[in-house]
Every structure is written in C-alpha cells, then in structure tokens.
C-alpha cells in the first residue's frame, strides 16, 4: 500500500513496523511522518514485483544477462479478434483442464472466466484463472503450467508476459486480443518504454496467428489460421 508524503511524494508501507504495531506505518522522513491517503488509494505492487524478478535472476546477475541463457523461448501464438467476435467464449472452449492457466488483465475479467469455468474445474478455478498482477507478485506456488492463455494481451507489457511464462515454466503462450484496441499504457511515465507491445515484438518471431471473426447469426465464430 502506498500513500503520499509532502516531503518525498509516494511512500510505501513499512510491513515490519505495521506487523509490530498493528497499525499502518509508512516509510517516511523522520521530520515529516505525516502521510495522506484516500478511499481511492490503491496497493502499489512495484516493490513486490521487483522482489519476484530478483528471485528469478541468477546470483549476481544484475542486468539479467545470464538469467535467460538456458531459457527455451515458448511457442507464441497470436489470436486476434474484433470486439464481439467471441474471444472469451473461445478461451473457455480452448482451455485444457490439465495444463492451462488463464491470465487476465483485470480482476473483473478473471471473475467472469472463473464463473464460466466453475462447472468444469470447480474450486480449482481460483488457481487456474489469475490476474497478471497476481502472478507477478505471487508466482505459482503449487504447480507450473505448460501453457498460458493471455486474455487481452495488448493491455500487458510484453516483458510482463515473458516474466509470467518464466514463472510458470510455460512451453506455449496463446496471446488473445485485438491489435486495434487500447494497448499497454505506462501510468508512471518515468522512463522510455521499449518492447511493450506483444504484436510488435512478435513480428520478429516465428509465429502462428489465428483471426477470430464476428459470429454469424447461428452463433458460429469462424476463424482463419495464418
């Protein structure tokens, strides 16, 4: 959790002090301990995501140059579909109970998919449908997944997608989205972004693409493999 301090701006929760006192304590200058927060204050996950990345890296590999030397790039398939073509329905139909994990950009999308998969996998939907933020913070504690289905892939930075693949030890990625919809947006805007768009990065990779088209009146959603 983060709050605002007049002296140094955004400050983070002091987790150890909070546990000891039972009250929220923030890391602030000694001469200015006052912070401001509102009902709209959100949890700041950047520090926790950074800790996850450090766990992924090899010892003393500060720039991650050694971390990826023995990593096998997963097979990447781009699934493109216009709004209303049935991308969510396709994800539910494509989902493999034994090997897949669905990754969403928002909590709302995750809850929707959990409801639609509840009859097939029951309570296991909690661990088989995850938000990208949850994966980057918590990883995969129980088991790995052979394949990740990334819903609304354009909303995620491609680096986040690759990190999720590393954490899951995934051999295959299905990136589902619409190249004409809203892409990943850098809310912090503190440094230039590179390689943030999955479809742009994928242009340089051997890849498979599937185009989902608008469904006909009978409910059939045609697709073209490229």
TrEMBL record:
Q: Which domain of life is it from?
A: Eukaryota
Coiled-coil regions, chain positions = none
Q: Could you tell me which PROSITE patterns the record lists for this protein?
A: PSRV_HELICASE
**MF-aspect GO terms:** ATP binding
Which InterPro entries does the record match to this protein? Answer: (+)RNA_virus_helicase_core_dom, P-loop_NTPase
Family matches, as SUPFAM superfamilies: P-loop containing nucleoside triphosphate hydrolases (SSF52540)
Q: Residue ranges of the (+)RNA virus helicase C-terminal domain?
A: 53-226
Q: Return the protein name.
A: (+)RNA virus helicase C-terminal domain-containing protein
């Amino acid at each position: 959790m983060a709050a605002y301090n007049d002296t140094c701006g955004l400050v983070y929760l002091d987790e150890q002090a909070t546990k000891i006192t039972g009250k929220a304590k923030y890391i602030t200058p000694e001469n200015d301990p006052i912070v401001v927060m509102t009902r709209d204050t959100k949890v700041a996950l950047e520090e926790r995501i950074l800790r996850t990345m450090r766990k992924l890296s090899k010892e003393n590999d500060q720039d991650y140059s050694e971390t990826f030397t023995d990593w096998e790039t997963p097979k990447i398939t781009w699934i493109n579909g216009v709004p209303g073509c049935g991308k969510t329905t396709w994800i539910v139909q494509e989902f493999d109970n034994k090997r897949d994990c669905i990754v969403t950009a928002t909590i709302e999308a995750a809850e929707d998919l959990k409801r639609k998969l509840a009859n097939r996998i029951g309570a296991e939907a909690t661990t088989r449908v995850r938000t990208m933020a949850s994966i980057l913070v918590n990883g995969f504690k129980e088991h790995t997944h052979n394949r990740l289905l990334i819903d609304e892939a354009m909303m995620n930075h491609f680096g986040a997608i690759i990190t999720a693949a590393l954490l899951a030890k995934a051999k295959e990625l299905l990136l589902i989205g619409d190249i004409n919809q809203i892409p990943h947006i850098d809310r912090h805007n503190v440094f230039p972004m590179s390689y943030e768009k999955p479809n742009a990065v994928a242009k340089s990779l051997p890849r498979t693409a599937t185009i989902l088209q608008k469904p006909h009146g009978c409910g059939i959603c045609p697709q073209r493999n490229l």
